[in-house]
Amino acid sequence: MAAITLSGLTKQFGTFTALKSLDLTIGDKEFVALLGPSGCGKSTTMNIIAGMETPTAGSVRFDDRDMTGVPMGERGVGFVFQNYAIFTHMTVFDNLAYGLKVRRLPQAEIDARVRQVAELLGLVPFLKQKSAGLSVNILQRLAIGRSAAINPQIFLLDEPLSNVDAAFRAVMRTELKHLQREFGQTMVYVTHDQLEAMTMADRIAVMDHGVLQQVGSPIEVYNNPINTFVARFLGAPSMNLVPGRLTGTGDAVVVELDGLGALPAPRVAATSADVLFGIRPEDVAIVPVDAPGALPMEVVFVERIGPRTILHLAAAGHQLKAVEGNGYPVSIGERLAIRPDPARVRLFDRASGLALS
Ligand code: ATP
């Protein structure tokens, strides 16, 4: 068992607060991604779990054991950094075997473990090679393999794929998930790349300015962002947030988008009439300009990305994006209309940014 419980975790660097009272429980064998922009406190959180930093306040527990003051070497965690630390004078085999030799495992067991990790990470063809001549991609695979070989119950990875190329990153996303399932580890994965978090994690912890914003499964945080920060941070292109005012009561609630028109709104216990009308670009249908209940707009830019087209639309001072996947021919300057899917609309309080629906 290796559940991690972070309670009231706070870290001050001088007068700067990098982490503000973070509470997070990571279940045994769970894969949790810490996701957020640069400087939001992801690495600080990881370093505290690993024992490389001491929290100013709060505690770290592994299952029922308080680990807060336990030195790094006694925590039994595996750690992979952005910059791989490989012994370049050694072969790939010796790098993978290093931690096992330090632990004085029998040679037969070392051989078996190295083989297993090498097979999982596609390192078998390189086992006899000196690490010095290997590509960045293979070196990062090796760094992951070396930490994985000792089979830590808790495996911490801090942006392990940020230095490798895009194609290899896609391969590694699958391999890492496979590795975690095979070894049954509790994995904490730091990234600022939403695609990595969305594809690999069981749950995503979204952070901003040292504060945990939301924790949930990838689909939960994507579909039901708790505030406008999470709504904007997840999704590419990001969610449209259009200022408007709630009017009407009961089932007849609408949002008046200034100068654009009115759209049906989800029923909310609104504390304020001033809202942001949120709709993801893929939930906006393109309809004929005279379609009833649709909002007329002008196409100001067109981005064609393979099978998808991202339309940049404008009207009455509002900017919106719509993703079009049907090959509908559109050109700049064209007038069309949009109809957001009412079931996918999310409302946010304009002043606080908090979700109302
Ligand atoms: P990145 O992806 O850029 O590493 P991050 O989310 O991992 O970002 P952290 O490295 O945890 O962010 O840093 C959080 C904040 O704390 C940043 O503003 C950073 O400058 C600051 N910080 C981190 N370590 C120190 C330190 N040793 N001394 C002073 N400030 C620090």
Automatic annotation (TrEMBL):
GO-annotated molecular function: ABC-type transporter activity; ATP binding; ATP hydrolysis activity
GO CC annotation terms, alphabetical: ATP-binding cassette (ABC) transporter complex, substrate-binding subunit-containing
Protein name according to UniProt: Carbohydrate ABC transporter ATP-binding protein (CUT1 family)
InterPro entries: AAA+_ATPase, ABC_transporter-like_ATP-bd, ABC_transpr_MalK/UgpC-like, Mo/tungstate-bd_C_term_dom, NA-bd_OB-fold, OB_MalK-like, P-loop_NTPase
Membrane topology, from the record: Peripheral membrane protein
Keywords assigned: ATP-binding, Nucleotide-binding, Transport
Protein family membership: Belongs to the ABC transporter superfamily.
